[in-house]
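FIELD: query
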Amino acid sequence: MVGLLFLALLVFAFGKADTSRSGTQSAADAAALAAAQDSRDQFKTLFLENVLNGGWLRDLLNGDRIGTYNGCTEADRFASLNDAGQVQCSQLSDGRWGFHVQVTSNKPMGKSIIPGTEDKHAESSATAVVEPRCGFEPDPDATESPSPLPQNNGGTSGDDKGDKKPSPGKITCDDRDFQIDPDHLDLLPDMADLFTVRLAED
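FIELD: result
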């Protein structure tokens, strides 16, 4: 009977520790995803500034160019919402666009029959990455770096059609294609349509 009671207490102690680690893992996952998503969303300004450069856009949607905006502030915020304590967040340095987050539980595991758990805090880590959803198909007649428009010094341009910026091509996604119209960049897909955010291996 004593042996069975001890076994039950041992199972309870490990179960309590697993619950603590599970909660901390959820906090780490949420924090890493939040950092990556914020970095993706903040990339929009740079995207619109360079979208007419076909070479730049090709590299971006091939995964050869990554965003550099640091989303770790959002990682801290989401970890706090999930009752995490210490948060360590860093951008990946292995060529991927993403973040690695390590969190420590705010509360210790508490006393149990397992020695040393009363002051021990659960720790978990997670990695989230940003990856392209779409590709780029260049216009065969477009140059990769369009020339700037001539400056108007007060005179008339004479032919407005001659000043129209050329389209570098189209963005191709699974469900539809988006022809890039330099005069209507607001019609391009959102960052969430262009890039997916997911958890990944460290």
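FIELD: remark
Residues 2-19, 147-159 have pLDDT under 50 and may be disordered.
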